[in-house]
Amino acid sequence: MFYILSKGVSFLLSPFNLFLILALCALFIKRKKSLFLTIGFSILTIFSNPYLFNKTIMRYEGEITTLPNDTIIKTVVILGGYCAHNQSTDRTRFNQASDRLLQGIRVAERIKADRIVLSGGTSNIIIKEEPEAISVLNHLSESKMINRPILLDTLSRNTNENAIETAKLLKHLNRSKHIVLVTSLWHMPRAKRCFEKQGFQVIPLGTDPLQQFEDNTFMEQLIPSVQTLSMWDLILKEWLGLVIYKLKGFI
Known about the structure:
The protein is an alpha/beta fold. It has 2 domains: 2-62 and 217-247, no CATH class; 75-207, Rossmann fold (3-Layer(aba) Sandwich). It has 10 helices and 7 strands. The strands form 2 sheets. The chain has a 5-stranded parallel beta sheet with strand order 5-4-1-6-7, with helices on both faces. A two-stranded antiparallel ribbon has the order 2-3. The longest helix is centred in the C-terminal third of the chain and has 22 residues, at 226-247. It is elongated. The two termini are 21 Å apart.
């Protein structure tokens, strides 16, 4: 029930979905047509504005930090959510969040990590899929991208389980709970709190930030952007995730 409710709220949080609902209301409720359309287009205008989004996300994500050059911590944990394996073509497709993997590998080499933990199973409960961590390991092995020992968590389906299964893995191997945690910068607040809940001491390394690296021109900041709408979808769902995790005691 809680899962279904969260999905429903997530759908309603999407600015574009809200616009569609209001447009349908305007179509069927004629006497309120102008009101529904005014609210709908106001939502589109506000949430498609790059300037407003960037100012908001900069406050949430905070400063983009540099990679650590040296630390006594020798375990790097890289959270999944950035690739999917296609069985028919035997190819692994990576998305933008694969910056987690690239930056995680780089920092592991820089600090001479003793081990890397790839944390990620599959969240698909209908179709049987290869766990993400295994797909990533196979890709790294074939491409010879890494020279560090790799540990796999293939069971976790969400951020909370990432922390739980990683804790079990390191406990079984009698490893320290001092880690460098690598995930998307916008996802780090929830991830860090989940791992700390499991007793980890975390050095966070946020990747693929949603905030811009360079300033747009004045005109570019005013032009509505479909990409900005989609980024609002992402961050609003993440904020909903924070609320749900807090209610469920995960953080």
